[in-house]
Amino acid sequence: MPPPMPTVGLVGKTNVGKTTFFSAATLIDAKIENRPFVTINPNIGIAYVRKRCAHVDLGLPYCNPKNSACLKGNRFIPVRLYDVAGLIRGAHRGRGLGNKFMDDLRQADVLLHIVDMAGETDEEGNPVKPGYYSPLEEIESIEFEVDEWFYGVISRDWDRFSRGLDNIPWDEVIARITKRVSGLSIKREHVVEALKDSKLENTKPSSWREEELRLFSKKLREKAKPMVIVANKMDVPEAEDNLKEVLSVLGGKKLIIPASALYELVLRKAARSGFIDYLPGDREFRVVDESKLTAKQKHVLEKIEAFMKKYGGTGIQNSLNAAVFDVLRMLVVYPVENPSRFSDKDGNILPDAYLVRQGTTALELAEMVHTELAKGFLAAYVVNKNKRVGSDYILADGDVIKIISATARG
Ligand SMILES: Nc1nc2c(ncn2[C@@H]2O[C@H](COP(=O)(O)OP(=O)(O)OP(=O)(O)O)[C@@H](O)[C@H]2O)c(=O)[nH]1
Ligand SMILES: [Mg+2]
Question: What is the C-alpha separation between 108 and 202, in angstroms, rounded?
């Protein structure tokens, strides 16, 4: 089976721009309003990460993408995007909508924490004058709520569960914990690393105090649902000083991406209507026909242009790319059947771009392409590097791979 699409979840205080981000990234219309708790049911859509296409690196004039898109030499590879109900401080005690809607993010592999950098919504998400509320406070309180949600799920019925772990081998303890938390899309390696980081290896889970379970849960959250901060609403003048402050406190410790979901939404819609030439992630856009724009539209586009110069784009594509490439550290590889044409058996050039985890081997790739192919695995040929490799070859970003198999079809 092809590799599972990574799932990116949007979290944040209510009324900070999560749905605006979602709409901008997916071009799905969803309700956006300047008041708290507009979103209740999750919005689920497809967004894309962007990377220079291998056809460019191979010096080919074009490709024939099937599972992804290639626009002007850029491969856009699909990822799942979830937009859920917002939080406020005290959500875990039931304030606002509580944190039960966070369960909609159980499948997420990585979270984008959308923050109102303009500080124009208060603790409860109500609109206030820009600069009123502190984004630092927002970051801290929402991260706390996310951790509390996670702890709530992990600690449910823990006493009974952990007593069942007494007197069984450590490996089995890990296996049982992994099974228990698998509904949160947590993998064995997350459990292993979290146990190590919280110095709880080879201890008896039934003897953990609340403090230790909390530490384990926090580490597990950091591994299984790592967060990137999207400093949203950077188009509001007050946001700039706030960003400086946030960077001075958290810069270096957290990944923080300046963004304007609003501007990206405007650009995506303008591009869809043919007013501008713009690809998500571009650092600039081009007006197709000035004469078709009203004075107001021109003014808005000029402001957006200046913003993009300053921040190197709108920040939306950067956020998605950072989540998938920097945090999940995924690679893009291209399986092919015909190495001399870089194509599948029908002649489609570089049809599939797979997003795979770092450490994925040639044999694992074979399994993703076709189980049969893996069964008869003989070797792999890394087309772009012109070398033959074995089953345990670790894939590198941009690899174009032909699997050589005794059970190859056709
Ligand atoms: N200036 C500015 N406003 C934004 C930006 N992104 C969102 N907004 C505004 O913020 C308000 C809330 O946007 P939503 O996308 O509905 O926020 P949300 O986080 O989904 O809110 P809930 O679903 O209610 O929790 C709307 O008035 C948006 O227009 C941005 O980048 N800049
Ligand atoms: Mg919303």
Answer: 29
